[in-house]
């Protein structure tokens, strides 16, 4: 019983550290936030912080993983709202762009993430979250004959790279119209991938902002 209570308390401490550090990192950025401030607002000691996270970078990595998982869930939820495989695919891609413009996620995921952890580790986290959903969606499209037969891995990385680059650009944009323009451009790019099974041009309403 005592061990169970202590385990619960440790988990609560960990969650509070993640919650408060995420808020601070989102508001002011990684470089401007110190560990002393984090433990103060979380109401814990530095010893408690170091029990869970060996360094500020390790704490940030845990926050970033949480953010990446959240974006992955948003992508999956947007896709799962549709039964048609093509609409599932395009809705998920568009939700990734939309999620990347959320101010609470932008600084952590797109600005500080690659800078603090390095590009390769940042990409690994992205692949485990949104990238996994993208690969699954492309596999479904291939099975349904909606895109020409081809290896999934290269196409996944090409599309993921394009969307990540667009998300990075949107994170630094000051023009609200850039999101709708980027969504439309993404829609046209995705439509170009689709196999023409009818002999007529393909068009996905979902990716052109009419869903």
TrEMBL record:
GO terms for molecular function: DNA-binding transcription factor activity; transcription cis-regulatory region binding. It comes from the Bacteria. Keywords: DNA-binding, Transcription, Transcription regulation. InterPro entries: Homeodomain-like_sf, HTH-type_TetR-like_transc_reg, HTH_TetR, Rv0078-like_C. It comes from Micromonospora halophytica. Pfam families: TetR_C_41, TetR_N. Residues 11-71 form the HTH tetR-type domain. Residues 34-53 bind DNA. This is Transcriptional regulator, TetR family.
């Amino acid at each position: 019983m005592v061990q169970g209570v202590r385990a619960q308390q440790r988990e609560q401490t960990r969650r509070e550290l993640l919650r408060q550090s995420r808020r601070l990192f989102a508001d002011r950025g990684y470089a401007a936030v110190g560990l002393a401030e984090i433990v103060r607002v979380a109401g814990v000691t530095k010893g408690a912080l170091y029990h869970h996270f060996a360094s500020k970078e390790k704490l940030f990595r845990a926050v970033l993983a949480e953010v990446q998982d959240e974006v992955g869930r948003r992508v999956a939820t947007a896709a799962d709202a549709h039964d048609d495989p093509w609409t599932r695919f395009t809705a998920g891609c568009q939700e990734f762009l939309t999620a990347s413009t959320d101010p609470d996620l932008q600084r952590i995921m797109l600005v500080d993430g690659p800078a603090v952890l390095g590009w390769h580790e940042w990409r690994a986290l992205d692949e485990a979250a949104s990238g996994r959903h993208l690969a699954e969606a492309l596999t479904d499209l291939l099975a349904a004959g909606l895109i020409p037969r081809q290896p999934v891995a290269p196409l996944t990385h090409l599309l993921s790279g394009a969307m990540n680059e667009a998300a990075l650009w949107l994170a630094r944009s000051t023009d609200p119209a850039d999101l709708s323009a980027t969504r439309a451009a993404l829609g046209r790019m995705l439509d170009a991938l689709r196999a023409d099974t009818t002999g007529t041009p393909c068009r996905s309403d979902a990716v052109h902002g009419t869903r």
